[in-house]
Specification:
By secondary structure, this protein is an all-alpha fold. It has nine helices and no strands.
Amino acid sequence: MSYLTWLIGTSALFFVLERFWPWRREQQSLRPGVRRDLGFLAVNGHLFSLLAAGVTGAIALAATSALQAMGLRLGHSPIREWPIIAQFCAFLVLSDFLQWCIHNLLHRVPWLWTFHKVHHSITTMDWIGNWHFHWMEIVVYRCLQWLPLAWLDAAPEATFAVAVVSTIWGDLNHANLNVELGRLGYVFNSPRMHLWHHDQSAEGGIAKNFGVIFSLWDFLFGTAFWPRDREPVQLGYPGVTEMPVGLGGQLIWPIRPPRGNADSP
């Protein structure tokens, strides 16, 4: 089954779940901005992701060959001898930790934060918000993850399974679903915890809860903030009104930001 098939199926699943078992019942499925976010889904989930996969795949292959010619032992990782489930677990943990590190950088490096502001312009949270981000983030993530993951050299079956799980979990984190994990919330991320990542206030620090699948990284490195008895008052980021409303405007805005908008949170 292709990744695109999984993407369509997962999108349909979360739409149905939010429609019949919403966490915030007053929140409408056809909320303002939903057509724009369907555009982001088309660009980031379909068009640009396929284009980026082809381009970055070719670049990665050339870079791998060049590094191997220089003596770097890529493609000789011992995990290739492991069972697929063990390769899946190793790839999942490493890729998720790298995503935590990169997500942290998106908030702390002013130039990267300018692009990441597009994602944080979300003011109504649902599953499709997972796809509301600037395409430059795909480039950043793939470039910074490439070498460690290339060294790990997991089987294609394992890497594909991790991509599927990461997509599902990303949709879940943004979904309008009241998922309570109990003590497992100290290990795995959830909609209740991730909602606080999109909190507009400075409560708990403006930059918090960077985890994608594992919340464990945030608890280990002191970036976790999760008042379990309440929700954020307002989502977004300070000064979110600077962001254009439409898809085209948000895609262009980080490239030509007004003065003073590159300040990190």
